[in-house]
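Dear colleagues,

For the upcoming journal club I promised to circulate an example of a predicted protein-ligand complex. I picked one with guanine because it came up in last month's discussion. The inputs are reproduced below in full, followed by the predicted structure.
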Amino acid sequence: MSGATLLDGKALSSTLVESLASRIKDEQLAPHLHVITVGDDPGSKVYVKQKRTTAEKAGIIFSQTCLLANASLPELRSVIDQCNRDRNIHGVIVQLPLPDSLRAHEREVLNLVDPTKDVDCFHPENFGLLALGEASFLPATPAGILKILDHYAIETRGKRCVILGKSNIVGKPLALMLARESGPACTVIFCDQHTENVWELTRQADILIVAAGKHHLVRDPSVLRSDGEVAIIDVGIHRVQTAEGKTVVQGDVDAAALRPHCRWLTPVPGGVGPMTVACLLEQVVEAASNFSKPVAPLKRLLRGPDIRLTRAELVSLMRKIDPGFPASELQLVLDGMKAADDGTIGFHAFANWAMGALQSSSTASA
Ligand code: GUN
């Protein structure tokens, strides 16, 4: 194969995983991802193993609950509830697809995950925030694609981006993220199996994203811009048998046929897949960091010299750290702290108390 530059998601994901490992050390986090699987979908087994291996590389704690394919909805609900309540778990994902018996309840199940631990960004609250441009979590595959475009400096602003596939996991959130005017600012054309004259649209694409779940859906060079100035992002992952009886992994795009006719192309494997895993883990670290936010800055300040602050300054500081902390309780605590003649209180003493109070109040609310 020659032609397009291959967009190396594997190398980029390794860099991201290394940066996550450093961030975990710097912020003294103990991020923990819990994956719930139901049944034994062979694809899910592979993906979950990749999540586990990469999490371990980044220094993220990984745990898993495996339910049998005949698990009931109440059983699954109970596992999700336990994870929601466990203060040491920061990210919870229910691996899809669910078995046939639970598939009709997929939305109900995803809605049960605590939005603050919904690192997949599947909960309606998080998806809604994403749609408003105020994302709390970023969905992994779209986030990985945006990072690839950014890393390779592929122009997005005002460019025509054609997406084949409207799934809730990839196509839909990706369209929102690419279209964001203060972000990539693409002009997005969003297609499904009903789209009329779809190949006329792909012929206009500066960026073509194929997330249709159909092996080698795009294989004819005549559906691309004739000048070859197109970036192709292949989201498909299919295990197929070659004529020689070998099993290989290929995408929604026939890379051998199209590489000579485009400028950039993500390989399968080694393109979007590894970036998806790394971006999911980035969201777990984000969740862990959010969880410890009030405590982390106090920990950092405790490493510095002690200073003396007035009661009013400490009250105002506590209000910023935890606006919900009861004012009357705070006054009592300050009354009990040793004050100097001028009424000031040592910051270290206050910070040590505040860290304990914040940790126990988040335990109580978890
Ligand atoms: N199955 C395939 N992709 C995904 C994903 O991104 N998240 C979950 N939970 N399940 C999946």
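Two points we might discuss: The pocket of guanine is lined by residues 93-96, 120, 140, 169 (CB under 6 Å). Residues 362-366 have pLDDT under 50 and may be disordered.

See you all on Thursday,
B. R.
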